[in-house]
Specification:
The chain has about 200 residues and is mainly beta. Helices cover about 5% and strands about 45% of the residues. It has one domain. The termini are far apart.
């Protein structure tokens, strides 16, 4: 995926040494905005049976794609603070009895912008602004992020600050904010409309 607004799938299995990497599939994913990051979307919803690709663009939009059919499945608003997202990684936090099954994990995305900000997005994606948070993790560039296998820590790597920071993961504030401001109802989305529930008066 690149600034040409296209997503390429390469056939690594059929590639040969000192030869061009054969293109298996290619489709356009943007008309005006530029894509900045992508990741395979985890199957966190029972109604999603297909393999989906999640892309982010510099207009703060998150998009789900079926790469086999080149069709868009969903578009929603992403975090709008700290600039556009440059890096996305999956964060799995064990719940319940700790058995490693799909049902016993809460799924989040960790992300970093080009400068300063690192944050969390709770899955599944629906555009609820209360499902995201961000914090200033470095004084300037954030070059990379990753999570520990047990989901307890996030590691962030800076640029000119020459530092690697270790962050303890606590998703309680996100869950409390979701519950406080409407949860899975339409309430969080009403405030996104200009003028709120009553609309804008002229």
């Amino acid at each position: 995926m690149g600034l040409d607004r296209k997503c390429f799938e390469y056939d690594v299995k059929e590639s040969k040494l000192f030869d061009k990497l054969p293109v298996k599939n290619c489709f356009s994913i943007e008309n005006e905005a530029h894509p900045t990051a992508c990741i395979w979307y985890p199957k966190v919803q029972q109604d999603i049976k297909e393999d989906l690709l999640l892309t982010v663009n510099d207009d703060y939009k998150l998009k789900l794609w079926n790469p086999k059919t080149s069709n868009s499945r969903r578009t929603c608003l992403g975090p709008t603070y700290g600039g556009d997202i440059k890096t996305l990684k999956l964060l799995k936090i064990p719940t319940g009895n700790g058995l490693s099954t799909m049902d016993n994990f809460d799924n989040y995305l960790i992300y970093s912008t080009g400068k300063k900000v690192v944050g969390l997005i709770k899955l599944p994606l629906d555009g609820n602004p209360h499902k995201t948070m961000g914090l200033v993790a470095h004084p300037n560039e954030v070059t990379d992020i990753c999570a520990s296998a047990d989901g307890k820590f996030i590691f962030t790597c800076g640029g000119d600050d020459l530092s690697v920071n270790v962050w303890n993961v606590d998703v309680t504030p996100i869950n409390e904010e979701i519950a406080m401001y409407g949860g899975d109802t339409v309430e969080p989305f009403i405030n996104l409309i200009e003028g709120g529930r009553e609309g804008q008066t002229f």
